[in-house]
Amino acid sequence: MSKARISAGSVLQLPSLVRRAVRNEWYHATSRAPLRPDVVLYEAFGGQGVLCHPEAIFRELLAAEDLQHLHHIWVLKEGIDRHGALGDLVDHPRVSTVTRGGYAYVRALATAGFLVNNATFPPSFAKREGQVYLNTWHGTPMKKMGRDEPGQIVATRNVLRNFLMCDYVVSSSPYMTSTMYESAYQLLNVYPGLVIEEGNPRTDRQILDAQGRAEVRRRLSGAGVDIGTPDDRLVVYAPTWRGASFARAVDDALELVTRVNALRERLGPGYRVVLKVHQQVYDLARSHGEVAGMLVPNHIPSNLVLGVTDVLVTDFSSIAFDALATEVPIVLFAPDLAGYISLRGLYLAESELPGPLVTTLDEAADLVASVGSGAPIPERSSPSMCRIWSSSRSSKSASAGSGTIVVRLAVGAGDHPWFRSS
Question: I need a labelling partner for 348 at 20 to 30 A (CA). Which of 10, 87, 90, 156 fits?
């Protein structure tokens, strides 16, 4: 007689597995409930906040005079402060939130008429007939993605499932369509929906007037970020995540803090250097007391921060492409360049990158200091090259309006049921 063997690890996993099974059953039961066509569900980075392209689309829909009947639901991860995430819209009568993984989330996902995500819904999700799914993704890729990334084919499963269920996916440019959708996820001649190749909705948020800039600075200061005075140059250091896989990102916060402090020391008075980490490592970073005064909080959208940034220091993050839309000077700083390219790979040759690439702090500090000083700047960081890159390889428009275009295309420019005849 054979004996069943259950490992200690399996026993410890039982409660979570049971909860997941119950949620899945609840989801499929709820999927028989009537759709709510006037409800829009938004999720960004698995519930990290009111962020990225979904945030820009949300604000567009919320403000549209002909769409005032819509109710908007934001998905927030457990522990995310809804007041911080929604700001002045926290008490808006047509805006509410659900906790990711909870039963209200399951019901909203199963019954909302319109779904907006910049990543993926859970593997249990199956789009119902009558639901409209718009996936914006969360950036124009510089680093290899999906099936182009060595050893990551299995990790693409749920991303591919989500894409194939979408009615619309957003692309910043022909470059993104080619690299992200055709190469990384091999959707050419397979994807049944529409690619909306009309720029990045979130870059609309970077275009700020004096009052808007003052408000963003107030929010940063209120969150404890040392941005100095309006006369100081604000340098934002925004590297991408590191690690063998997205699910197991490396906690390199203390190393990043060391770099920020070194840049501050080398640049001297008149500069403020702050740290914007990738969503995947934010919780890891904020657990370190050393980030106090420099870590940009997650609930403030990166594109608002770019609206008050004087120089962006990044590496292979998609934030570099966003910065081009408003001609923020870019320095690409990658001290682990050779190892990163070997592990992950890039879509672009060094000569094609949107800014000068350096590997040492001294080189990075020298380039940052040269911006606005009259000193020679490498050609690829000049405004003229920014315009060329932005129009040909990244964002289709450097002015506000991508969010409007995406919204109107996705809802049928008048043919969608949301547009009611008077």
Answer: 156
